[in-house]
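[job 4471] stage=fold_predict status=RUNNING
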Amino acid sequence: MNKLFALMLAAALPAACMAEKSVTLSSPDGRVKAEINLTGQASYSVSLDGNTLIEPSAIAIETGNGKVVGANLKNPKVKRTSVSTAVESPFYRATSIPDNYNELTANINSDWNLVFRAYNDSVAYRWYYKSKKPVTVTAETVEYVLVGDPTATAPYVRSKGKDKAANSFDSQFFNSFENIYTVTPASGLESDRLIFLPMSVKNADGNNVLFTESALIDYPGLYLNKSADAGVLKGVFAPYPKTEVQGGHNNLQMLVTEREDYIARITGPRGLPWRIAIVADNDKALAQSNLTFLLGEPSRLSDTSWIKPGKVAWDWWNDWNLDGVDFVTGVNNDTYKAYIDFAAANGIEYVILDEGWAVSGKADLLDVVPEIDLPMLVEYGASKGVGLILWAGYHAFNRDMEKVVKHYADMGIKGFKVDFMDRDDQKMTAFNARAAETTAKYRMILDLHGTHKPAGLNRTYPNVLNFEGVNGLEQVKWSKKPHDQVTYDTQIPFLRQAAGPMDYTQGAMRNAVYKNYYPSRSEPMSQGTRTRQLALYMIFDSPFLMLCDTPSAYMREQECTDFMAGVPTVWDETVVVDGKMGEYIVTARRKGNDWYIGAITNWDARDLDIDLSFLTPGESYRTETFADGVNAHRIARDYKRTTGELKADGKPMRVHLAPGGGFATHLSPM
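[job 4471] inference complete, writing structure tokens
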């Protein structure tokens, strides 16, 4: 057989098993490449347009039987395939999402495969366990060898330091996954602090890499830590909990007191989480990425017709404060009937009963405070087309999950907001999946508050509509200066939101420029302008979307309320029009034939020319627009609402944003 014929035969059999020691996997458009080493120590590197972004980085799995999978490889056989399809996503940022990639599977041994995928905006890999025999994973080697000294944008866990006796990060594994970002050269990252995901690095040429994961079910979440080796980020995982004690917030948490010598137990064939490196030559592409959803495990629900996303009138942020009423407000029937009345009058689908409706400190969700008559409130809400959602602390929900969910589903409660998990070891990620499965069984929606970033669970269980894992608006209730929520808002669309939806809880009606801001737990305010709060309804992904302020404030600000209440929470199409991390972002979203556009800036005033090429050429639209008022730089609540007409003629839309400002407009075809 001559060489030419051999090459032609290999090209004609792309799915054939072939023995290769170092292979190249390219994205469908050819711009992204992974060079995968499969001899000796498994490793891979990533490049974009020929520019290396990740140097060869090791991959391995160490199991309890003493084997290190990924070491001493001897040319394993590989299989290649290509996929071009679309994934339905009815409760997310688009009706469906293109799913186009090239895949390579290496048959490492009889128990393990190593799978790589190259998308047009990323490289991802995962281990797949093939055996039916149980095994423990004592360690997983994840590393990213950076090129040069790129600028890192990293969220540290709030606690610091290692447990010197154990040389571990045990004290940092208990955390809320809420923190602002530290922007520093990668060489300046702190080696004694864990970084939770997503995080990113940017090279001097403007190329970005964002690190995160997906298909995180029943396996510990990934942290990164700056290694002693220059320019290397190492993966860190919380070991499996051995002993726990009840405690923490109102006895609603389980605190790990001792851990096992392994990170995970595997009982049969399954894929481990995808390790994702999203690559982009501009910031905007990071905000547009859908990789964590695409790499989530496929939906396990055969019927999703009962899942109803929507907006929520929320009590906790505004401290149950109503004025102009003839009863004392708080956790009581009269207050919640007023919230229900407000929701019904404004087409808001849900009211949430946050912490306080169950007796505090007992971790018993069947022990309701005497001031609340839940069956009556459920019936009252149903008569007005408003569903009720119950807040639940982790331990109270976990200890009686099936009983609690069935009891309240039978009563007519529509879902739960579960809080204070504050861990992502294997036991806790298994809890999140079990909570999703159990609530779905009883046709209830779920908001996973107090948890790690999303990692594909909203694809696997579409009834999980939202996640926290974000330093959301609640922080302004207690954070003193120099806390900067405005800059953070212009970072998270490019970072945290790449992981999935965010329970950020926007909608504040008390707004302050930076010099006038102060923390207030009972009458909280936002940083930045009023129009910024409206724009956040288009900027952030939130299928289950809070209106955080008091009904009394909203009723005094009806035209703003009408706009917020009318904004959809799931979309047919999302276009990130423009943006730069930490500076500004412009996002357009379509529902049916209507478009909504939101823009926000940091503390710099900004003039933007918004590209409207996503509109149907020649189409005419009615416009309702909210813009920062001429004095919004002094009085943050100052805004101007206008209506008019716009024709899609190719010309950009010129807008001005005040410092900390925003812009929001609704376009409806004429």
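[job 4471] summary: Residues 426-441 form the longest helix (16 residues).
[job 4471] exit 0
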